[in-house]
Amino acid sequence: MARAPRPAEADFAEYIRARRDHLVRAAYLLTGDLHQAEDLVQTVLVRVWPRWPKIKEMENVDAYVHRTLISLFSTSVRRRRWREVSADPQQDGTWTTPTAPDQTMAVEARADLRTALGSLAPRQRAVLVLRYYLDLPEAEAADILACSVGTVKSQAAKAVKRLRERQTNNALTDERGTT
Question: Residue limits of the RNA polymerase sigma factor 70 region 4 type domain (predicted)?
Fold first, then answer.
């Protein structure tokens, strides 16, 4: 006989149902890899669960969860720098499924965005995800990243500048017909 879920379990399960996809998409923008994103979100949820009775009473539960997501992402990036990572040429983000031309363009655009985000420093990537994907105000992003609002502004500006430069360079390369 299954027992009835406790109120905290039910609240947590409801939160996961409502926010999991959103968290996975944010994590994917940070990591650039769906499997890593799902692992990251799972780790976040495991970390949040023991504290859930207190967390659910907070004014902004999402801010706490986002802070945990960014913190765990930053930790994983630091750890990855110290390990040797082998590159698998088959995991270059290319798509082999045949698609219609408009779908192909959409897939290419997403792949370009993933590559461009991957070229940014982890902190800049985190700022862009918080500000433009999660649509958080600068003050909340600064709180999550444990930095000043000015740092969020400058990191966002640098990241956007780098993405624009990359886009310009890619356009020039395409015009010349070189790769």
Answer: 112-163
- Which domain covers residue 174, as residue numbers? 100-179
Segment 121-152, tens digit of pLDDT = 999 999 999 998 888 999 999 999 999 999 99
Together in a domain, 75 and 120: no
Three-state SS letters, 21-84: HHHHHHHHHHHCCHHHHHHHHHHHHHHHHHHHHHHCCCCCHHHHHHHHHHHHHHHHHHHHHHCC
Structure tokens at 168: 């310009």
Indicate whether 59 pLDDT > 70. yes
Average confidence (pLDDT) over 48-58: 93
CA 80 vs. chain centroid, Å, equals 16
107 and 75 in a common domain: no
For residue 98, what pLDDT is reported? Answer: 43
> What φ, ψ does residue 160 adopt, rounded to 5°?
-65, -40
Q: Are residues 72 and 106 in the same domain?
A: no
- b or e along 129-156 (b: 16 or more beta carbons within 10 Å of the residue's beta carbon)? bbbeebebebebbbbbbeeeeebbeebb
